[in-house]
């Protein structure tokens, strides 16, 4: 393998990164703005209005949130202290890790808008479905 | 419109998006400087967090470029005729891939261009939500049964999720 081949391949790979770079930076900037907003939303009492409404609220907050899963566990603890049931807490955890409305522009730049939009919308619905099934099954078995 | 012109146009959009985001950040700074400063701290942490994985993905892509045919092979393994092998590759790869999603996008874009099924890309992204290193912590907070049920449910549901996304995304033609 020649040096020219190595450089040409590196340049081609870098070009792919370069195209995504401005969107990645923008999405990270937006995501960083939301990190402190989610706990504020929880403390503002947006949740606590019945299981289904809370599941939807938790789904929405989890979808907008961003960060390590450990943060979602800690916030789920906060939700639990606030009196939320396991259905809403599970919806929040699943939405946190599966839905990403903030990273969507970066996902769309790589995989297309239609894919990114439908993937996130489907994952939003699945968060409700999975939490419903998991908690119902756990209740049924215990 | 040729490809180069299309790429340039879409990249203008990307830079405009970045400019708009920086403008929005500036607005937040004017309204609440402490909040904006704290958020910028989170931004720096996120960048530090993804940099090592970006390097890893760059090396992978570079390797794929150098060793001709690997991208095509991966595309074949995850193409429309890939069957069970493709699903196992997508779900297993999703569970084993680690770190934030952002650095993985260039690799997924390459795979899509090589013919990987959208269903498998969606399944990969869904299964990525299973974070093996964090499972003990989840057990600590919510118990073993809960963790087990939720993890298995996410892994299993990544398949119908992939099917539905593929059906919806490809309904009106590709992209």
Record the SSE blueprint.
The complex is a heterodimer of chains A (142) and B (175).
Chain A: H1 3-35, H2 37-43, H3 51-64, H4 69-81, H5 86-98, H6 104-111, H7 113-141
Helix pairs in contact in A: 1-6, 3-5, 4-5, 5-7, 6-7
Chain B: H1 3-31, H2 33-66, H3 70-77, H4 83-96, H5 105-113, H6 118-127, H7 135-142, H8 144-170
Helix pairs in contact in B: 1-2, 3-5, 4-6, 6-8, 7-8
Describe the model.
The complex is a heterodimer of chains A (142) and B (175). Chain A is mainly alpha-helical. Chain A has one domain (3-141). Helices cover 82% and strands 0% of the residues of chain A. Chain A has helices at residues 3-35, 37-43, 51-64, 69-81, 86-98, 104-111, 113-141. In chain A, helix 1 (3-35) packs antiparallel against helix 6, helix 5 packs antiparallel against helix 7 (113-141) and helix 6 crosses helix 7 (113-141). The mean pLDDT of chain A is 82. By secondary structure, chain B is mainly alpha-helical. Chain B has a domain at 69-170. Chain B is 79% helix and 0% strand. Chain B has helices at 3-31, 33-66, 70-77, 83-96, 105-113, 118-127, 135-142, 144-170. In chain B, helix 3 crosses helix 5. Chain B starts with a helix and ends in a 5-residue tail after the last helix. The model of chain B is unreliable at 1-7 (pLDDT under 50). Classes of the chains: A mainly alpha (142), B mainly alpha (175). Chains A and B meet through helix 1, helix 4, helix 5, helix 6 and helix 7 of A and helix 1, helix 2, helix 5, helix 6 and helix 7 of B.
């Amino acid at each position: 393998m020649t040096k020219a081949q190595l450089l040409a391949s590196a340049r081609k790979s870098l070009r792919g990164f370069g195209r995504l770079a401005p969107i990645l930076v923008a999405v990270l900037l937006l995501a960083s703005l939301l990190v402190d907003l989610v706990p504020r939303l929880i403390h503002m009492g947006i949740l606590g209005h019945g299981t289904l409404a809370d599941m939807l609220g938790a789904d929405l907050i989890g979808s907008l949130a961003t960060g390590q899963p450990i943060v979602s566990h800690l916030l789920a603890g906060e939700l639990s202290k606030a009196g939320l049931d396991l259905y809403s807490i599970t919806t929040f955890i699943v939405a946190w890790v599966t839905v990403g409305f903030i990273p969507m522009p970066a996902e769309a730049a790589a995989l297309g808008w239609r894919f990114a939009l439908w993937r996130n919308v489907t994952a939003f619905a699945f968060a409700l479905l999975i939490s419903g099934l998991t908690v119902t099954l756990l209740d049924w078995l215990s | 419109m040729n490809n180069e012109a299309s790429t340039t146009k879409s990249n203008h959009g990307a830079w405009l998006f970045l400019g708009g985001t920086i403008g929005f950040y500036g607005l937040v700074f004017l309204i609440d400087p402490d909040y904006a400063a704290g958020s910028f701290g989170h931004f720096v942490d996120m960048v530090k967090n993804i940099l090592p994985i970006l390097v890893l993905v760059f090396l992978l892509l570079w390797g794929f470029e150098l060793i001709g045919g690997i991208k095509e092979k991966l595309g074949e393994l995850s193409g429309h005729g890939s069957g069970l092998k493709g699903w196992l590759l997508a779900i297993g790869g999703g569970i084993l891939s680690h770190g934030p999603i952002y650095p993985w996008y260039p690799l997924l874009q390459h795979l899509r261009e090589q013919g990987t099924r959208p269903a498998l890309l969606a399944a990969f992204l869904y299964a990525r939500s299973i974070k093996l290193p964090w499972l003990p912590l989840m057990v600590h907070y919510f118990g073993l049964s809960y963790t087990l049920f939720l993890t298995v449910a996410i892994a299993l549901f990544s398949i119908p999720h992939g099917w539905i996304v593929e059906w919806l995304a490809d309904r009106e033609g590709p992209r």
